[in-house]
Write a structure and sequence with these properties.
By secondary structure, the protein is mostly helical. Helices cover 71% and strands 5% of the residues. The protein has 2 domains: 3-270, no CATH class; 300-319 and 329-352, no CATH class.
Length: 353
């Protein structure tokens, strides 16, 4: 394999890492609207539609007499698809309870698992690769974790996700040398759609409105992450070793951490809860909690039919019950009205005299 081919493959894998890293932000945002099976099923269906025309064109180019699908093509696509699907679903479930930066870091630990699996498969891993692995882990830690290293239940799911992605990387490296990479990408996505469709319908029962609400995260994750990035990953791995591919793609952890800081943190700041006042209460716009404000005694001016203006203190009269030995609200009102009548009558009498 010449140097030009290696640079070409490594460039594709670098672009893949950038797209995947920012996809953590989209996945985190999408979990606010739909469940993990729904998100995975819809985004993979969208990605498969993007890949399908390219897949048909490549297969026709290889076999002008007609598309010939072999048994090895089916087995390779199904195995890569199953590893990818289970890993992605575990990642989606974990994203409901953890932040994008931490999920990106733990997922990127496949950088360690890929060479370990390679050793069992008879591959030789140079010492400089292990040194690069260690440096990448430390760098991704500082970028992604941001001091939040507390272990959670979701982290176990993400570790399992990293292990399955390591398996997927090894499977892709094996089959991409035997069958077309775009075919593997298409079969991988269609396998994921088939596997997640039943749980989506039975467990989550999504409606079209929920999917529309999550349209922007799904569009990014479907078109860019699934349709483009996974295809670039498979094509790029054809020109490099799985260990080097895992090393390059692990940069998604760093890009995921940066995306979480630059995008999600800014969005949280812009949408910080602002209290509004309604009917003597403050209501938090984000949480819906209400706080009752202290009541303020107020006076109102009412008109009577006898005098032009009669000032009455109605707030206290409506709230405070009449105590024993005191006039109640009705008695006070009658007393004031009678007094006003006497004053008006007296003035009229003086005018007549």
């Amino acid at each position: 394999m010449n140097t030009h081919s290696k640079w070409y493959g490594n460039s594709l894998l670098t672009i893949t890492a950038i797209i995947w890293g920012l996809a953590f932000v989209a996945q985190s945002a999408g979990m606010k609207y739909v469940g993990p099976f729904t998100f995975q099923c819809v985004r993979c269906a969208l990605g498969a539609m993007v890949v399908f025309p390219l897949m048909v064109w490549r297969l026709k180019k290889r076999s002008p007499s007609g598309i010939n699908i072999t048994r090895e093509m089916l087995i390779g696509g199904l195995l890569c698809g199953l590893a990818f699907t289970v890993a992605a679903v575990l990642q989606q479930i974990a994203m409901t309870t953890t932040d994008a930066g931490k999920a990106a870091f733990i997922t990127a630990l496949y950088i360690v698992l890929v060479p370990v699996l390679g050793i069992f498969l008879g591959e030789k891993v140079k010492m400089r690769i292990w040194g690069c692995v260690l440096l990448c882990i430390v760098g991704i830690w500082f970028i992604s974790i941001s001091g939040q290293a507390k272990m959670q239940a979701a982290d176990i799911l993400l570790l399992a996700c990293a292990a399955l992605f390591a398996v997927q990387i090894q499977l892709v490296s094996y089959y991409v040398k035997k069958i077309d990479g775009v075919w593997i990408s298409f079969m991988q996505l269609m396998t994921s759609v088939a596997v997640t469709f039943v749980p989506m319908v039975m467990l989550e029962k999504p409606d079209f409105g929920m999917i529309v609400d999550a349209k922007y995260p799904i569009l990014y994750a479907g078109i860019l992450s699934c349709g483009i990035a996974y295809t670039l990953q498979i094509i790029g791995q054809k020109y490099t070793s799985p260990v080097t591919a895992g090393l390059i793609m692990s940069m998604e952890g760093g890009f995921g951490g940066l995306g979480g800081i630059l995008i999600l943190q800014k969005r949280r700041a812009d949408s910080a809860p602002r209290p509004i006042m309604t009917n003597g209460m403050t209501r938090n716009m984000m949480t819906g909690t209400r706080t009752v404000l202290p009541t303020v005694t107020k006076t109102t001016v009412t008109k009577t039919t006898v005098t032009k203006t009669t000032v009455m203190k109605t707030a206290d009269m409506k709230t405070a019950p009449a105590q024993a030995g005191e006039e109640g609200p009705q008695e006070r009102r009658a007393h004031l009205t009678g007094r006003s009548l006497r004053i008006r009558t007296g003035r009229q009498g003086q005018g007549l005299s």
